[in-house]
Design a protein that fits this description.
mainly alpha
C-alpha cells in the first residue's frame, strides 16, 4: 500500500509542460476578457508568443523552476477571476476566487506580490470609476502583498543574498539595463544563457560607460510609449503590465551575482506580447496588409519554435548547461567552477565504488575546470580557490598547492566574506597535517578572533593542541566548540579520546561518548571508544557488550576483535582472548606472534 510517485526526470518535466500549456490557455483567456476590440487577435498572438518564446525555456525546462509555472498558474487564474468580477457586475464570489488564487500564487513564489497593483491598473485601463468600493476591495490584496513582500526581503537578508558590491546609486543603471535588455531579448532572443553575470566587478573596476546612458534610454522609451498610448491606450496597459511585473526583479535591489535572469520574464512578457498582439490586430483588420501580417506571424512562430526547441537541449545535463554559459560568457568564473563541482561529485561516486583510477581522473578534471575558473575570470571570487584547495588537501595530498590556494583566499580584500573564515580554517588544517603546529595555531587564532562564535575554529585549534601534546588547551577548545554548538559530535569524540588516552579520565570519556550515542546510537567510533573506557575501568562485561555492538555494525573490523582480545585477557579468559586475536588477524589487524602466544591457553 502507499502512494506511488514517479521519480524519473520525465515526470517533473511533464508536469512543468502541462502547467505551461495551462498557463498559455490562461493567457489567452485573460487577454480575451480584458480587451473589447480585436480581442481574439490580441489574445491569440499574446498566447502564441507566451507559449513558444525561447526566453521562457528556463522557467519550463528547469525542474527547480516549478515555482515559476505554478505561481503563474494561480496568478493568471486570479487575474481571470478578477476580470469575471468586473464583467459579472461585481459578483463577490469572483473577487473571493481572485483573492484565494492570489494567495496561492504568493505561497508558490514571492514574485506574485505584484498582483495587487496590477488589478488597479486593470481598473484604470477599463476606466472604472474611482470610489470607496474600489479602494476597500483592494485592501486585503495589498495587505497580503505587503506581508509576503516583507517575508521575501527577510529571506534574502537571512540567506545573505543581497549583493553589497552593487548597492548605491549604481543600482539605477543596473535596473535600467534590465528594463531595456529584457525588451531587446524579447524582440531578438539571441545570446541567451542560464546565467548573465554583471559586466564588471565594482570592487576592482569602474562601471562601463555605456551603462551611464541607459537611464536616458528608459526615459526616451517611456516618452515614446506615452506618445503612442495617447491614441492607443492598449500600449499603455501592456507597458504598465510589463513594468509592474518586472520591476521587483530588476537590480534596483542587487540580489545575487546575475544582472538579469531569463526566468524573470515569464509573466512580464505578457504585457509586451499584448502590445505586439494589438499591433498585429490592427494590421490584420486592414485588407491590404493582413496577408503579409499573417505571413510574418507564421514566420515568427516557426522561427521562435525552432529556437525554443534548440534551447531545451542546453538543459540536458550539468555540462551541456554550463558549457553553453561559457560560450556566451567565456570569462565568467561560475561556469568552470560548477563543472569542477560536477567532476568532484563524479569522483566521489567512483570512490564509493572503489574505482581508484577513475576517481583520480575526475579529481584532475575538477582541478582543470577550477583552474580555468580563476584563469579566465581575473575577478573570480574565493570559491574556486577553496574548492581546489580542498581537493589538493583531502584527495590528492598536494599540501603545498593547497597552502597556495588558501593563502590566496585569505588575501581577498573583503574580510566580511565567509570564505575568509573557511580559508583560515582550511589553511590551519593543512599546516596541522604538515605538522607545522605554530603556523596552524597562528592562522586559527586569526580565525577565532575574526569569528569568536564559530565552533569550528575552536575545534580545529583543538586538533592542533592535541597533536602538540597540550591536552589542557585541546580540552579547553573542544569545550568552547561544544558550548557554542551542543550537537558538535566530533568535538565530543575528540575530547572524549583525550580524556581516555591522555588524561586517564575514562569516566569523563564515557560521558562524552554517551552524548554522541544519544544523538546517533550507531556511531561506531563512540561505541568502540566507550568499550575502551569500560575496559580501562575493568568493567569487562560492559566493554564486551559495546564491542559486540560495534561488530554487529561492522563484522569485519579487525581492530574491534583485537580490543576484545585485550578485554578477555585482562578478565582472565585466555581462550576467548586467543580466539578473538585470531579473528583480528583474519580481518587485517597486525598482532605480533609473541602477543598471540601470550594469549594462547
Amino acid at each position: 500500500t502507499g502512494v506511488q510517485t514517479c521519480a524519473l526526470p520525465i515526470c517533473y518535466h511533464l508536469t512543468n509542460i502541462i502547467f505551461h500549456l495551462l498557463n498559455t490557455l490562461l493567457v489567452f483567456g485573460f487577454v480575451y476578457h480584458i480587451f473589447d476590440k480585436n480581442k481574439v487577435e490580441i489574445a491569440s498572438v499574446t498566447a502564441i508568443l507566451f507559449g513558444i518564446h525561447p526566453m521562457h525555456v528556463e522557467s519550463v525546462t528547469w525542474i527547480s523552476e516549478r515555482k515559476d509555472v505554478l505561481y503563474t498558474f494561480f496568478f493568471l487564474g486570479g487575474l481571470m477571476s478578477y476580470a469575471y468580477y468586473r464583467q459579472k457586475q461585481y459578483a463577490s464570489k469572483w473577487l473571493i476566487f481572485s483573492f484565494i488564487l492570489f494567495g496561492l500564487s504568493c505561497f508558490s513564489k514571492g514574485q506574485a506580490v505584484v498582483f495587487s497593483p496590477l488589478i488597479l491598473i486593470i481598473d484604470f485601463f477599463q476606466k472604472r470609476k474611482f470610489d470607496v468600493k474600489m479602494v476597500v476591495e483592494k485592501i486585503p490584496f495589498f495587505l497580503v502583498s505587503l506581508f509576503f513582500g516583507l517575508k521575501a526581503i527577510e529571506a534574502q537578508h537571512s540567506e545573505s543574498a543581497i549583493n553589497a558590491n552593487y548597492e548605491g546609486l549604481d543600482t539605477l543603471f543596473y535596473g535600467s539595463y534590465g528594463i531595456l535588455t529584457y525588451i531587446y531579448k524579447m524582440l531578438l532572443p539571441i545570446g541567451l544563457s542560464g546565467a548573465h553575470p554583471y559586466p564588471h566587478n565594482p570592487v576592482f573596476e569602474p562601471m562601463p560607460d555605456y551603462f551611464k546612458v541607459l537611464p536616458f534610454g528608459v526615459i526616451a522609451l517611456a516618452a515614446l510609449i506615452f506618445w503612442l498610448g495617447r491614441k492607443h491606450n492598449t500600449i499603455w496597459f501592456g507597458a504598465l503590465f510589463y513594468l509592474t511585473t518586472i520591476v521587483i526583479v530588476l537590480k534596483f535591489v542587487p540580489v545575487g551575482d546575475a544582472v538579469i535572469a531569463e526566468r524573470y520574464t515569464y509573466i512580464p512578457y505578457i504585457g509586451l506580447f499584448m502590445i505586439i498582439g494589438y499591433v498585429f490586430g490592427q494590421i490584420l483588420n486592414n485588407d491590404k496588409w493582413n496577408k503579409i501580417a499573417l505571413f510574418f506571424l507564421g514566420l515568427i512562430t516557426i522561427t521562435l519554435t525552432a529556437m525554443t526547441f534548440q534551447r531545451t537541449k542546453v538543459w540536458n545535463n550539468t555540462f551541456s548547461f554550463w558549457e553553453d554559459v561559457s560560450k556566451t560568457y567565456p570569462n565568467y568564473w561560475r561556469s568552470y567552477n560548477c563543472m569542477g563541482q560536477e567532476y568532484l561529485q563524479m569522483a566521489s561516486k567512483q570512490k564509493q565504488l572503489g574505482n581508484t583510477e577513475a576517481e583520480r581522473n575526475f579529481y584532475k578534471k575538477a582541478i582543470e575546470q577550477l583552474t580555468l575558473s580563476v584563469k579566465k575570470d581575473k575577478w573570480a571570487p574565493p570559491v574556486p580557490y577553496l574548492l581546489r584547495g580542498a581537493i589538493y588537501t583531502d584527495n590528492l595530498q598536494q599540501y603545498d598547492k593547497a597552502v597556495e590556494d588558501y593563502k590566496k583566499v585569505i588575501s581577498f580584500p573583503n574580510k566580511n566574506d565567509p570564505s575568509q573564515i573557511d580559508g583560515r580554517h582550511n589553511l590551519g588544517l593543512v599546516y596541522y597535517r604538515l605538522k607545522k603546529y605554530n603556523e596552524a595555531l597562528n592562522v586559527l587564532n586569526e580565525a577565532v578572533s575574526m569569528s569568536p562564535n564559530h565552533p569550528k575554529g575552536y575545534y580545529f585549534r583543538g586538533l592542533v593542541w592535541a597533536a602538540a601534546n597540550n591536552s589542557d588547551k585541546a580540552i579547553e577548545d573542544y569545550t568552547r566548540a561544544i558550548t557554542i554548538d551542543p550537537n558538535f559530535l566530533s568535538a565530543y569524540l575528540n575530547r572524549g579520546v583525550i580524556y581516555t588516552d591522555k588524561t586517564n579520565q575514562p569516566q569523563l570519556g564515557i560521558n562524552d561518548f554517551n552524548k554522541i550515542l544519544q544523538m546517533n546510537p550507531n556511531h561506531q567510533d563512540a561505541i568502540i571508544n566507550t568499550g575502551i573506557c569500560l575496559y580501562k575501568l575493568k568493567k569487562h562485561q560492559d566493554a564486551e557488550k559495546m564491542y559486540n555492538k560495534a561488530i554487529q555494525l561492522n563484522p569485519k573490523n579487525g581492530r574491534v576483535f583485537y580490543l576484545k582480545a585485550l578485554n578477555f585477557y585482562q578478565a582472565g579468559n585466555k581462550e576467548l582472548a586467543y580466539k578473538s586475536g585470531l579473528q583480528a588477524i583474519q580481518f587485517g589487524s597486525q598482532i605480533s606472534e609473541s602477543l598471540l602466544n601470550q594469549w594462547k591457553p
